[in-house]
Amino acid sequence: MIDLLTHIQDLKLFEPGARVVVAVSGGADSVALLDLLRRLDAGSLRLVVAHLNHSLRGEHSDADQAFVAALAAGYGLSFVAERRDVAALARELGTSLEDAGRRARYDFLAGVAREHQASCIALAHHRDDQAETVLMRLLRGAGGSGLRGMGLSRGMLKRPLLRVSRADIECYLKEKGLSWRNDASNDDTEFLRNSIRHELLPLLGRYNPKVSERLAATAEILAADEELLGQVTDAAYRRLLLPGTAEPSFSVAGLAREPRGLRLRLYRRALAEQRGDLQRIALTHLEAIDRLAGSERPNARLNLPGTCLVLRSYDRLSFAAAESADGDFDVAVAGPGEYRLTGGRTLRVSLVERPERLDAGAPSAAFFDPQAAPFPWTVRSFRPGDRFSPLGMAGTQKVKDLFINNKIPAPQRGRIPLLVSGDRIIWLAGVRMGERARVTAASGLVLKAEILDITL
């Protein structure tokens, strides 16, 4: 039998004297973990026992909580428990009990770690859990990043038993004379993980008795590969990301020079940056983005789950939140001052001395003759049919044509502020000054308009 205490010491996951939140359900694995950590480094770790009551099994759930509370008291450790209605959470999120429970647990544990200023959270996942996780993700169609399974150490999460079998854990419990709670729901094969544990893994074991060990080893190999590929992706992301854009954007020509596998990883990275996660994003979505990037159409858009848009505009491929891609705005400007616009931007208007250079501060600032641009002004979004007299031009031009000539991506045209005095557009912010309100050599004090945080 493996010496579990020596095994955990050799992993060096915990600094001596560290404050560690230990997730304890009351089951065999977490009871063993708590006892081991209590003995680790001669008991120098400052442990906080954390238990989440899922409110799924009535008095049995309450009995689990009471058991863990008594266990913590017996060790003289701090104990934190919380009750959450996981069934209600699953209904609210439209997800399974398994997924809702997982989310609730990690949220609870993160909160306990913050409250107690812990450096890490210890979880009792073992090698058999890892094998089940790999199979679950394989059945759901995961790629390399999913098939790498759980990490021995990822961020604050530490899994000291991840390379240890369930059989080794049970031997340790018997050796130490420790008792634990059995959760009857773990035998319910209506849950996917339980079905894999009790039905699929035993079946695969007929072909390879060490199937759990081999699956866990495969996960470790993939984790190492993913670490390397992640570094390659990060370097390519920094190299190919277009500067000065509010959302992740790439040159279509630049993407075309990269291998398909790297392009798909770049799309995943950009989606994660924009959305915050990759939930409901599958290979079909990544392939659709790749087709959009390789399309001959200069302007197109792709709607993805999670209110995310991928926008193709000439040579630019952008990943934008749906709510920020469009949206009309119309703000009255009574005089000098600051005016809030959409997207966290601000219009600042001030009366200043005529600068020596009128292009100072361009493209986010412009100067106007107060006599030629009387208040009130309006700052608004583009409307079909808008016409404009660009600086140096006697007649007018369609604003849409100006956008096209300047290769302003179609989805971004609605974000560009148009400054209007009376019924005349005097400035396309960040694009072009107008002729009719331009400052002349005879002008004294002039009006300065600035769009703060402007990004085209």
TrEMBL record:
Notes on the domains: The N-terminal region contains the highly conserved SGGXDS motif, predicted to be a P-loop motif involved in ATP binding.
Positions that bind ATP: 25-30
InterPro entries: Lysidine-tRNA-synth_C, Rossmann-like_a/b/a_fold, TilS/TtcA_N, tRNA_Ile_lys_synt, tRNA_Ile_lys_synt_N
Species per Swiss-Prot/TrEMBL record: Geomonas silvestris
Gene Ontology BP annotations: tRNA modification
Localization per Swiss-Prot or TrEMBL: Cytoplasm
GO molecular function: ATP binding; tRNA(Ile)-lysidine synthase activity
Keywords: ATP-binding, Cytoplasm, Ligase, Nucleotide-binding, tRNA processing
Short name of any one Pfam family annotated for the protein: ATP_bind_3
Family: Belongs to the tRNA(Ile)-lysidine synthase family.
A GO CC annotation given for this chain: cytoplasm
Swiss-Prot/TrEMBL catalytic activity: cytidine(34) in tRNA(Ile2) + L-lysine + ATP = lysidine(34) in tRNA(Ile2) + AMP + diphosphate + H(+)
The name this protein goes by in its record: tRNA(Ile)-lysidine synthase
Role, per record: Ligates lysine onto the cytidine present at position 34 of the AUA codon-specific tRNA(Ile) that contains the anticodon CAU, in an ATP-dependent manner. Cytidine is converted to lysidine, thus changing the amino acid specificity of the tRNA from methionine to isoleucine.
Group of enzyme by EC: ligase
SMART domains xrefs: TilS_C
Residue stretches making up the Lysidine-tRNA(Ile) synthetase C-terminal domain: 377-449
E.C. code: 6.3.4.19
